[in-house]
Amino acid sequence: MKNTLIILSAIIFLTACTEKMRIDTQEGTRLVGVSASITDEYKKQEVILSRTEPFYGGNPEMISNAIVFVVDGVDTIEYEESEKPGYYYSVNEFAGQTHHRYRLSIDFTDDEGDQHFYAESEMNENVEQIDSIKIKPWKFNSLEVKNYLGIYPYFQTCSDPNVYYMARLRINDTLVGGDTLTKCELFSTAGYSGIYFNGPLMVMIGGEFPIYGLNQRDSLEVLHKNDTVTLDLWSIPSDYAYYITQIASSTGTNPMMGTPSNVLTNIYPEGKAVGCFHASSLRQCSVIY
After folding, report:
1. Would you state the pLDDT for residue 4?
2. CA-CA-CA-CA torsion for 85, 116, 72, 160, nearest 10 degrees?
3. Most buried residue, 70, 195, 202, 230, by most Cβ within 10 Å?
4. Is the pLDDT score of 193 beyond 70?
5. Residue-wise pLDDT tens digits, 263-277
6. What is the DSSP letter of 64?
7. Higher pLDDT, 180 or 67
8. Residue 69: enclosing H or E segment and its boundaries?
9. CB-side neighbour CA atoms (13 Å) of 15
10. Distances (CA, A) of 198 to 81, 162, 194, 209, 214
């Protein structure tokens, strides 16, 4: 379930098709796929390199033997390929820092010659801490959703109205929805920036707001007594938020659905790559149900 400050829902029932259809799709130019991030977690940061496949293709081809490094304006951070082809990790562990701009550089040689790709991302501020979490039936003002539990956090929001937040949830250390981005919740405090989230002023102006919903008819999301529920609250750059939104709208196996072009990317040169590089910071809070 997607939560936004303005909630709009539409249900479309398709009943005409009774047979599976396979639509012939034209093969386009193969692009380089980049999945890369810098977080404020102290760890070896990751870059994944691959190539795009046809719509009905199989596993992507991974890109090996690339030279990968990140520059933060002062230091050059080198990466090395792991035993798993296409997966590169920083040689040393480090934690990204707020307000630092990071530039990713990727070089390799293939049948078309020398290739160079690059991207930039700045780590925005995040909330100082999440003070507490309440879990109760999902309700936003007069709107109630049956069989859903809402996750209501309480924290002092950032003063910057351009900060985007991404919420992920863990039940007993298991990430709800796995690694897929379609199970995250995106929101911006916009006009509520600088006030206490779900505090008295926000409730008076716009109502108490659940930032995540758990479907209690889904066996993977059902909560039981003494379960540990952890909220991961990420502060992410706007281009990564738009990227996730487009990914969510393009998910599925139907070539007739989704955006009519490739999902936007901040990987350059333009038109040669897909994916995203982002610098994001994390805050966590846990509660026993």
Report:
1. 40
2. -100
3. 70
4. yes
5. 789 999 999 999 999
6. -
7. 67
8. strand 67-71
9. 2
10. 44, 19, 12, 6, 19
* Structure tokens belonging to residue 258: 């989704």
DSSP state of 141: T
Write out pLDDT tens, residues 46-73: 999 999 876 555 678 999 999 999 999 8
Structure tokens at 81: 């390929």
Please state, in angstroms and rounded to a whole number, the distance separating the CA atoms of residues 218 and 216.
5
Report how far Cα 271 is from the mean position of its chain's Cα atoms. 22
For tokens 């040393």, name the residue: 92
For the record, the structure tokens of 237 come out as: 């750059």
Chain centre distance of CA 32: 20
As a whole number of Å, the end-to-end CA separation of the chain is 21
Instruction: Tell me the pLDDT of the chain averaged across its residues.
Output: 86
Judge whether 241 and 278 are in contact, CB under 8 Å.
no
Tell me the whole-structure pTM to 2 decimals.
Answer: 0.82
